UniProtKB/TrEMBL annotation:
<dbReference type="InterPro" id="IPR050697">
    <property type="entry name" value="Adenylyl/Guanylyl_Cyclase_3/4"/>
</dbReference>
<dbReference type="InterPro" id="IPR029787">
    <property type="entry name" value="Nucleotide_cyclase"/>
</dbReference>
<feature type="transmembrane region" description="Helical">
    <location>
        <begin position="194"/>
        <end position="212"/>
    </location>
</feature>
<dbReference type="InterPro" id="IPR019734">
    <property type="entry name" value="TPR_rpt"/>
</dbReference>
<dbReference type="Pfam" id="PF00211">
    <property type="entry name" value="Guanylate_cyc"/>
</dbReference>
<dbReference type="Pfam" id="PF13432">
    <property type="entry name" value="TPR_16"/>
</dbReference>
<keyword id="KW-0472">Membrane</keyword>
<dbReference type="InterPro" id="IPR001054">
    <property type="entry name" value="A/G_cyclase"/>
</dbReference>
<keyword id="KW-0802">TPR repeat</keyword>
<feature type="domain" description="Guanylate cyclase">
    <location>
        <begin position="9"/>
        <end position="116"/>
    </location>
</feature>
<feature type="repeat" description="TPR">
    <location>
        <begin position="486"/>
        <end position="519"/>
    </location>
</feature>
<protein>
    <submittedName>
        <fullName>Adenylate/guanylate cyclase domain-containing protein</fullName>
    </submittedName>
</protein>
<dbReference type="Pfam" id="PF13181">
    <property type="entry name" value="TPR_8"/>
</dbReference>
<dbReference type="InterPro" id="IPR011990">
    <property type="entry name" value="TPR-like_helical_dom_sf"/>
</dbReference>
<feature type="repeat" description="TPR">
    <location>
        <begin position="452"/>
        <end position="485"/>
    </location>
</feature>
<keyword id="KW-0812">Transmembrane</keyword>
<dbReference type="Pfam" id="PF13174">
    <property type="entry name" value="TPR_6"/>
</dbReference>
């Protein structure tokens, strides 16, 4: 039998309640089916579709374009609603199929069938992949419904509904189809012979946490211990300096694994790296980070072998609760017999959840070479300064890791996160870079639906696209999988702030500080959130406290200058902006402060520099609009804000236009109001 593989948009349809209709009125049922096929045949042909088969009251067809498939579905549903109306359900997905002489097969066909099974009469449900291909179609509207786990489909699928006039948009609680039961059957059959060496450590840590806290609870009445931990940077005991990245990688892997356990609050990497090679005592570090437990250790590479040593310490009394050494060859760095963690867990009577066990025992990659590229890429990404050359290196290294192991989920997440950093720092036009970020994020989700980073990246992409409901859904799923996901809490906090839910925004920002108390990037963002409350003094106080520890931090100084402008303290803002060690000649907020203080020539000097730079490289139009606003040029302000929206919008600044006091002079301008209506 000949076979051919191709990419196609797959459409399933069926008539709701057709079997019952046949039983009650066979003549009427036959008439309805005849009308259904007549409409289906003519409209499918009009949009270049190919009917693969009829089955009873249902159909299977394919299209070369998702856009054509959806336009076909819309026209069909409108025709089906004319009397006598036909209650048709439609589901569409796009993916690889294998053509045989009489049929099509493949996972994508299965997914399309599952999506159609959810649909309500008069609706068209589509997958996230189809929705992504409709983004530039102004005549097609869609609405996010929810994420679903379908039977015989490994990944969690975001499902959208077409929302054009005349098309039914069902509510989530109205849908029922071929979804999975809550309890995963795959867990019962799940057996692995090896796990990451760090996972062995994690399993032991979890056991000891539960055991130690259970012991103390029985001896201390109702005293509840804080289940919080900091994984300090492991010491590099090797002779070669190249082992430093490898050692940091061990630290980060343990931290990542621990962060998946819901019972633990795990301090994030940005804060714990402040204590790399620190001389502070364990109790002092724990106090500064607000944790009860500290994990420290060392890594030594010798020849083709590695030794990892780790110790868990109760920071309240400096007692060592547990210590262990692990000796493996470099090629076996990911592997250790699961028997170790299983026996310890059994001895200490620990029961982890099904999802936690599956997640903790999953190998990220079986290629040490791919892993090394991945860790080096993370090193450049985690520097967090937004330098283009560092982001380029991170991107190239993540891509090398993917080339070596195309199933390395975390490498795809890292690549997507790297692209998102270009947006955060204003290095590339968001609309273009988001398309680049989306592909690896979707691939990561396909490879591992249980990886929180996949949802975090997709949530950030939706956030930057001003797709609030979709962003919230993805970000909440990321936190459900990884309850210590700082970036997801941060994005959710900004969304709640901009929709006016200040109480929830404060709660989420406080959670960010709990998990990452020493990250200057997060401290700066949280302080700046007060700008939108018009609580400038509160934000400045947060920054002044942080500047005592980090007096030369450019991000802290930048946000302090912003808050001072909100308080109309322009001269003071100018002094703060000029304390920064980078970007004086490109500092758009410095130019704004100059303009508002009457120093228009200095403001125009920066403006002209940015306008010239804009001719040859990307400069966020929002920055230029802000300077024009300071100069009182409303026309150019509106023109450049519109340009900014057309390039994708500059992250949180654009989200906050409605609450930004800088733009009060144009708040009633029709062009400004129209712009705000686009980003609700």
């Amino acid at each position: 039998m000949s076979q051919k593989r191709q990419l196609a948009a797959i459409m399933f349809t069926d008539i709701e309640g057709y079997t019952a209709l046949m039983q009650n009125d066979e003549k009427d049922a036959v008439h309805i089916r005849f009308k259904h096929r007549e409409i289906f045949n003519s409209v499918t042909e009009k949009y270049g579709g190919e009917i693969i088969q009829y089955y009873g009251d249902g159909t299977l067809s394919i299209f070369s374009s998702s856009v054509e498939a959806i336009k076909c579905g819309i026209e069909m549903q409108r025709a089906f609603q004319k009397e006598p109306s036909i209650p048709v359900r439609i589901g569409v997905h796009v993916g690889d199929i294998i053509r045989t002489e009489s049929d099509i097969i493949g996972d994508a066909v299965n997914v399309a069938s599952r999506i159609e099974s959810l649909a309500a009469a008069g609706s068209i449900l589509i997958s996230g992949e189809v929705n992504d291909q409709l983004r530039n179609q102004n005549d097609i509207n869609s609405k996010f419904i929810s994420n679903f786990e379908f039977k015989n489909v490994d990944q969690i699928m975001p499902v959208f509904a077409i929302a054009n006039q005349g098309i039914v948009v069902p509510k989530k609680d109205e849908l029922s189809g071929k979804t999975k039961e809550k309890e995963s059957q795959s867990f019962k059959a799940y057996k692995r012979k090896s796990v990451l060496v760090t996972l062995g450590i994690v399993a032991i840590l979890v056991a000891l946490f539960y055991y130690y806290q259970s012991f103390n609870s029985s001896h201390n009445g109702d005293v509840a211990l804080n289940r919080s931990i900091a994984v300090l940077p492991f010491s590099n005991m090797s002779n070669d300096t190249d082992s430093e990245n490898f050692t940091d990688g061990v630290t980060e892997d343990i931290l990542l694994q621990l962060s998946k356990i819901k019972e633990l609050q795990v301090i994030s990497r940005a804060s714990i790296m402040q204590f790399k090679e620190s001389n502070l005592s364990i109790s002092d570090i724990a106090k500064e980070l607000g944790v009860s437990y500290v994990l420290e250790g060392s890594v030594r590479k010798y020849g083709d072998k590695v030794r990892i040593n780790a110790q868990l310490i109760d920071a309240q009394n400096n007692n060592y609760l547990w210590a262990e050494n692990y000796d493996k060859t470099l090629t076996e760095i990911f592997e250790i017999q699961s028997q170790v963690s299983n026996e310890i867990a059994r001895a200490l009577k620990i029961t982890l959840s099904e999802n936690e066990i599956l997640s903790l025992n999953k190998l990220p990659t079986e290629s040490s070479e791919a892993y090394n590229y991945y860790k080096e890429a993370q090193m450049f990404l985690n520097r967090g300064g937004g330098k283009v050359e560092e982001l380029e290196k991170a991107k190239d290294l993540f891509e090398k890791a993917i080339d070596i192991d195309p199933s390395f989920c975390r490498a795809y997440v890292g690549l997507s996160d790297t692209y998102l950093e270009y947006i955060y720092w204003g290095r590339e036009a968001p609309k273009e870079i988001l398309e680049k970020a989306l592909t690896p994020a979707l691939k990561a989700l396909e490879l591992s639906p249980a990886e929180g980073g996949s949802y975090g990246a997709l949530g950030s992409i939706s956030y930057y696209r001003f797709e609030k409901e979709t962003a919230v859904s993805y970000l909440e799923k990321a936190i459900e999988i990884n309850p210590n996901y700082v970036g997801a809490y941060d994005k959710l906090a900004w969304i709640r702030l901009f929709e006016g839910n200040l109480k929830e925004a404060v709660r989420l920002f406080n959670k960010v500080l709990e998990l990452d108390p020493l990250s200057t990037k997060n401290i700066a963002n949280i302080a700046f959130s007060h700008y939108y409350f018009h609580e400038y003094d509160k934000g400045i106080k947060v920054l002044n406290d942080a500047l005592k520890r980090f007096p030369e931090d450019n991000m802290l100084l930048f946000m302090k200058g912003n808050l001072l402008t909100g308080a109309n303290k322009y001269e003071e803002a100018i002094k703060v902006f000029n304390q920064r060690t980078v970007g004086i000649n490109t500092n758009w907020m410095l130019a704004y402060a100059y303009a508002k203080s009457g120093q228009t020539e200095k403001a125009k000097k920066i403006l002209n520099y940015l306008l010239e730079k804009h001719e040859t490289t990307y400069v966020p139009p929002y920055m230029i609009a802000t300077i024009y606003m300071g100069l009182g040029d409303k026309e150019n302000t509106l023109t450049w804000l519109e340009k900014d929206y057309n390039t994708g919008g500059l992250g949180l600044f654009f989200w906050g236009l409605k609450r930004d006091v800088k733009f009060n002079p144009i708040k009633d301008e029709p062009r400004f109001v129209a712009l705000l209506n686009k980003i609700k």
